Amino acid sequence: MTPEQVLAAIPQQEPFRFIDEILELGIDHIVAAYTFRPEAYFYRGHFPGRPITPGVILIEAMAQAGVVALGLYLISLELGRDEASKYTTLFTDAQVEFNGIVEPGTRVITTGRKVFFRRRKLRAEVEMCREDGSVVCSGTLSGMGVPR
Fold it and tell me: d(Cα 7, Cα 118) in Å, to the nearest integer?
């Protein structure tokens, strides 16, 4: 699958998709980008007067790139594109450390590196950085491919 095909196969959609584009995609890694829109619904209450992106949203963004998108790509390599279309990848667990905040309008780059992929279970080391290279959060995330 091409990066565009993987992006089209991701089950999350607006307003809950946190990948704008896939910049790199290979058997052992993915690099994706997303700009957090200032009008996003969660900024209204987190926090009024000084909005920042909730940590759970940052984890979700990391999971969509480093587990869901990379997992769909790996499943397509294993089963073929047609058979892979019958699967989705679900995020299952995370151990994440936060190093900074993401304000509305910030573009982030998320890099996922495969730790292992077997029996349609993927574990990846994932890091999210601002465009200037400063790390926002990083950790280990896992997911598994399940039939749609």
Answer: 22
Amino acid letter, 56: V
The 10 Å CB-count burial string (b at 16+, else e) for 28-67 is eebbbebebeeebeebeebeeeebbbbeebbbbbbbbbbb
Quick one: the chain helix, strand, coil %, rounded to 5? 25, 40, 30
Residue type, 70: L
Active site residues: 46
- Cβ neighbours of residue 71 closer than 8 Å, sequence gap 6 or more: 89, 117, 120, 122, 143, 144, 145
Per the structure block, which two tokens stand in for 95?
A: 């151990």
User: In this structure, are residues 108 and 130 in contact, taking their beta carbons and an 8 Å threshold?
Assistant: yes
Per-residue model confidence (pLDDT) at position 4: 96
pLDDT of residue 83: 87
* Per-10-residue mean pLDDT, the chain, length 148: 94 95 98 97 94 98 96 94 86 95 98 96 97 97 92
- Residue 91 is predicted with a pLDDT of 86
| Helix, strand or coil, per DSSP, at residue 6 | helix
Q: What's the pTM value of the predicted model, to 2 decimals?
A: 0.95
